[in-house]
Amino acid sequence: MEGLYIPKRSKPWKTKLKKAIFIILITLFILLLIALIAVFVVLPLVFMNSLSLQKKIVFTNSDLNSNKEFYETFPQPGFKNRYIIVKDLNGSTNVSIGLWQMLPTSVTLDLYDDYAIDYDYMLKNSTHDILIYFHGTGESRDDSVLKYRVFRHYFQVIAFDYRGYADSTRADLTEASVVSDCIQIYKWVLEQTNAKIFVYGHSLGTALATRMIAHLSKENISPVGLILESPFTSFLEEIAEHKYGKLFAWLPYFKATIINPLEKNGFTFDTKKYILNTTCPIMFLHAEDDDIVPIKFTNKLSELANLRPNSTVVVNKFDAKFEYNHYSIYKNQFYEYMVAPGLITTIILPTELISKKNYSIAELPGVNNFYVKVNEKENITLGVWEILPRSILRDAMNNNEYDYERILKDNNQNVLIYLHGNAADRTEFAPLYNILREDFHIFAVDYRGYGDSFKGEMTETKMVDDIFQFYKWLHNKTSSNIYVWGHSLGTAIGTHLVSNLKNDNLTTTGLILEAPFTSVPEVVSNHTVSKLISWVPWYEWTILDPFVDNDIAFQTEKYVTNVDCPIMILHSKDDSIISYLYATRLFEIAQNNRDFSTQGVVRYHLFPEDSGYDHMEIYKEPFLIKLVENFIEDCEKFKKHKWVQ
């Protein structure tokens, strides 16, 4: 009918489609809600009440199927698979720990028949230091073969699997039980070898290694050095910062359901607590792009480690641009130089040089062994030899109750402080002392950590300050002229010392530098190995800058211009340790930046190559005593001239 409105009917399929979409959306929402509840509510609750799940989070690679034959027949020359039996915490249950003993590469190359190698003998009589490796939670000992390849350039390596890992016995996994196993493994190695021992931990292994060393320190047992790669402050803090842990860290019940149960069951791995009870030097290695253990943990731990009174800390950070993340720091081309037995500090400052000599017995007559406390806060006492001048030697030898302090006060003989090189102690220079006692009353000092001097943090500032305090002690005991003689490393310490004396209105009469260098970074940069890698853009900040950053640069060139007394430099042209070119450069720096009227002359004596004196034997120079006496005349003339002014 015309004009009549007839409404359109909606199509049935559109209505059904809308309903289907609505139902799907509701279903997806419900499923998402269920998933969110399962993940963010149920899972934390299950974790809170499941000890086995907590153990699996902590010890990720434990209880996985392993092929024992794989470890026993691993196809690498110089590898020995062993099983070491340790006692469980209850003292009655035996736990078998799977372990690889890996010979140094150089040793392996010399031994063609792997079956004929006596591995017990090789461990006992190792000519290389030993490195005990603690792997991370998501690894077993076969995961770090490429890293071992680097270690074996310098070490004989011991790598083992914790209980429950790889082919080690399945046993109750707790922090305490695993640490107990580690302690027993360390003591086993200690009993089997006469070599020095280093410890290397990665990730979870850093926590186990640190707690082990803290425990061993109670028994006066300590490795030579500890290397911590990607460490965390505690597992409780790490889990909150882990990339997966952050998914839950925002939950208001995160602490109640995640942190508190771990703490209750003893899974704390509190490295920040135990690191304070270690005494050995520590090196930290961490990549800035590590998304499993953030680098801020190394920053915090290194600060804590620096609070320890008796040790050294070195930190190596790797730029994020290298993309090393958590597992690949070993790929850095300088890695092997960082982890060599000469840790950066021990290359220059061998803190393990704690001698068992009897320092009260000297091969020279007229030697008085005594000790001077130079740092109350750190409890640092230095061992000293007083070598009497020849002019009073006969009198001293005929008098068993000779008053050394009185003769120091009353005698007007020139006094000499002798500062030795880095790989020595005060006992090793008797031939030189015997020559110098013609003109000097000698005091030979061992730095902190050397000889029988007390151990302490090994930095340039600390070492120089110790000698500064000794100088002031000696200055208060005598009115005689005081000279300083430094050899090798001692030249850097001596120059820095004399430069600092003016801060207390003190000055020495003369400074003698035997085999000096300009600075450690310059010496390193001119080394043959360094020249091969100096072209890379990050060479300076990875190799040279750490010496300055860690206060072990010994920049003699910086301080020599601030020495207000005459200087005599001695060097042999055939010196194979420190090139004479450094002495020449140091002489030029001192000569060209000096006010001779207020600072005195600079003498430089370079002995010819055919003299054969090398680094240690300038004392054999027949005219040495004449050179010394001429220098004394220079110093006395300068002092008189300065006094008149």
Automatic annotation (TrEMBL):
Q: Can you name one GO molecular function term for this protein?
A: monoacylglycerol lipase activity
Q: Does the keyword Membrane apply?
A: yes
Could you identify this protein by its name? Serine aminopeptidase S33 domain-containing protein
Q: Which GO terms describe its cellular component?
A: endoplasmic reticulum membrane
Gene Ontology terms describing biological process? monoacylglycerol catabolic process; phosphatidylserine catabolic process
Q: Which residues form the Serine aminopeptidase S33 domain?
A: 128-251, 412-535
Write the record's keywords in alphabetical order, separated by commas: Membrane, Transmembrane, Transmembrane helix
Q: Which residues cross the membrane?
A: 21-47
Q: Which InterPro entries match?
A: AB_hydrolase_fold, Hydrolase_4
Q: Which Gene3D superfamilies match?
A: alpha/beta hydrolase
* Pfam assignment, any one: Hydrolase_4
